[in-house]
Every structure is written in C-alpha cells, then in structure tokens.
Design goal:
Length: about 100
C-alpha cells in the first residue's frame, strides 16, 4: 500500500534535519507570572504547527481556512510570525541548500 503524500507534510527525515533550528519558548525572567511554572495550556505539537504553516504557504489559503485539526489560526499565525522574525525559515532554507550542493 502506498502512503499518500501531501506537499506540506513533514517527514521524519525533515523533522530531524530542522529540529535544532526551532526556537524554544523561554519565559521572560523580568516578567512576573500569575501561574506557577508548568501551569496553563500545554505547548502545541510543533510538527503540526509547522505543517499548518507549510499548508498555508503551499496552498495560498487564508490563515482562517486552516483545518482545525492542526491548531487555531491565531496560534498558527503567531508561530509563523515568531519563526519569520527569528530567521527560522532562512536557516532551514540555507541548510537545505547546503545539503543539496553537497
């Protein structure tokens, strides 16, 4: 049986290649939080977040049209903005160019 492939899915090989490039959220040491550490919502599955970002970039759909199985559109868009601002997409682009050149 052939597994269907969608151009926005992240394979295990791709995930391994980019896992070190993903920024990890660190709490602001200068901010006083009301909840205890570890409280609140659990962080989303970054693989699903990235797949949803790639889905929007690949299909050109609106952020609000992303399937709810991934995450909320505001959460996905916030991660997209954060990854854009910290240079994540540029880093993985260059990393893959180097791999291709090799």
């Amino acid at each position: 049986m052939v597994k269907s492939y969608k151009s926005w899915t992240i394979t295990d090989e791709i995930r391994k290649a980019i896992k070190d490039e993903i920024s990890v959220y660190e709490p602001d040491p200068n901010k006083e939080y009301k909840m205890k550490p570890g409280g609140g919502r659990k962080p989303p599955d970054m693989r699903k977040i990235l797949e949803s970002i790639f889905y929007v970039l690949r299909t050109g759909c609106q952020w609000k049209a992303v399937q709810k199985e991934y995450a909320s559109e505001s959460n996905i868009h916030r991660y997209f903005q954060n990854h854009t601002n910290d240079g994540f997409f540029a880093r993985i682009w260059f990393k893959n160019l180097e791999k291709y050149d090799g």
